[in-house]
Design brief:
Helix 2 packs antiparallel against helix 3. By secondary structure, this protein is α/β, with parallel strands linked by helices. About 40% of the residues lie in helices and about 15% in strands. It has an eleven-stranded mixed sheet with strand order 1-3-2-4-6-5-10-11-9-7-8, sandwiched between helices. The two termini are about 20 Å apart. Strand 2, helix 4 and strand 3 form a beta-alpha-beta unit. It has 15 helices and eleven strands.
């Protein structure tokens, strides 16, 4: 399946055109593989827009999708819920949507998600759950919260899946579906017009089919140019943090990750195993509930009073945890995070990037975590495992990218490259070379 970059080159050579590519994307979107992927399709509008897209623009009329929490002018923004399905229509596109349109992208629909983005599993009791494309025999979770966006990219229904990442909501579904997900430093992309989960941790970002497409998407969303140096992979100093990230890891994930490290070392990469004892502090720092619970409760409290019965019970449970946080506890949390970030940045200052498994498990079956109180324990166990590794980077206010590192025919496994804030360009440059090396193996 061609990525955006290759498709653009083919278009410029006359081998295809925007309208042909749009109809191909719509055909996939209407196929069974995309059942439950969209909460609202915009195919007719897309067909009108594609004729107005300049062939020389960066996206040249190619399809993108947007997570259901982004504003689209003239539509409500339900964020995967039913309680907001009849909310007032947005008066303008979210900044991220507007920028992708301005770059020539054609929006084909709103994608399904975990209600209000509060879970890494991707299950939605209101709109159904998109099915991971990796296993034809067993319906598996897509990961969340940007579930539909991930499947739209993995199936070929879109070149860019716009989403958000608060604790891994881009990188988790990217890892489980075998695609690329880049979480930039949060401050680089405006979140105006995106319904928030945590205003402290939310990042607007995207999933793509390749690292070079991730760079293009980020450049559009952040309105900046990425400086990806030409240094060889051996010129970078890479770390592997051995504590926490490998706890409870599945053998298939551990094997794929170790194979990836061996490949990188074989071409000269400098990889050093380290301990990061600061990670042991996170449980105590977040003991009162963390930013997502407190900040989501502040946003949802009145809506919960009016319409709480319409919420996904699992989501409501997590939001309501924020009701108990006291003002001094929130201030302590802000201060503790700031001090923790400084210590972690100092510990990583001599490295160009860190390598970790994106998540420690492969995608479990949907049946094992489907809505139902009898499966709540398993749901929350899986959710905690999926969020653990990527959420560390959000707490760090850092940047990270997940790219596939599994062998053909195996369930997808993600390799995460990450660092502290504003190391985006180095992480992307290293990811480009890492992707190239892994694809050659």
């Amino acid at each position: 399946m061609n990525d955006l970059h290759a498709t653009r080159l083919n278009m410029l050579a006359g081998g295809t055109d925007a309208r042909t590519e749009l109809e191909r994307a719509i055909g996939i979107a209407e196929a069974p593989a995309c059942k439950h992927v969209f909460t609202r399709t915009l195919f007719d509008e897309a067909r009108e827009q594609v004729g107005r897209s300049a062939p020389q623009s960066r996206l040249a009329g190619l399809a993108f999708t947007t997570k259901d929490l982004f504003d689209i002018e003239g539509q409500p923004t339900p964020a995967g819920s039913v309680v907001l399905s009849h909310a007032p229509a947005a008066k303008a596109d979210a900044v991220a949507v507007a920028r992708l349109r301005a770059a020539g992208g054609v929006l084909t629909g709103r994608t399904n998600m975990t209600e209000f983005a509060f879970s890494g599993v991707g299950v939605n009791p209101h709109h159904g759950t998109p099915v991971n494309v990796s296993d034809a025999a067993t319906p598996r979770i897509p990961g969340g919260s940007s579930s539909g966006a991930a499947v739209s990219v993995a199936t070929g229904a879109a070149f860019i899946g716009l989403g958000s990442d608060t604790g891994g909501s881009i990188r988790i579904p990217a890892a489980l579906n075998g695609i690329v997900g880049f979480k930039s430093t949060a401050r680089l992309v405006q979140a105006d017009g995106a319904l928030p989960l945590s205003t402290t941790l939310d990042t607007v970002c995207a999933m793509t089919r390749s690292v070079r497409d991730a760079i293009a998407a980020h450049e559009i969303l952040a309105a900046r140019r990425v400086t990806a140096g030409a240094a060889s992979l051996g010129a970078y100093r890479l770390a592997v943090v051995k504590n926490v990230f490998f706890d409870d890891i599945e053998p298939a994930v551990a094997s794929a990750f170790e194979d990836a490290l061996q490949t990188l070392r074989s071409i000269g990469a400098q990889v050093e195993e380290i301990e990061l004892p600061e990670l042991a502090e996170l449980q105590a720092i977040n003991a009162t509930g963390g930013f997502s619970a407190a900040e989501s409760y502040a946003w949802h409290r009145l809506l919960l009073e009016r319409s709480g019965a319409g919420y996904d019970p699992r989501v409501a449970q997590r939001i309501l945890r924020g009701a108990g946080m006291k003002a001094h506890e929130y201030i302590d949390l802000v201060n503790a995070r700031r001090a923790w970030i400084a210590r972690v940045e100092a510990a990583l200052s001599s490295f160009d990037a860190v390598l970790s498994p994106t998540v420690p498990i492969t995608a479990p079956s949907i049946a094992s975590v489907a809505p139902g109180t009898e499966r709540d324990d398993e749901f929350f166990r899986v959710n905690a495992l999926l969020l653990r590794n990527p959420s560390i980077v959000n707490m760090l206010d850092g940047c990270a990218i997940s790219l596939p590192c599994h062998a053909a025919g195996e369930l997808p496994v993600g390799l995460m490259l990450w660092h502290a804030a504003l190391h985006d360009d180095a992480v992307l440059a290293i990811a480009l070379q890492t992707e190239h090396a892994l694809r050659r193996q």
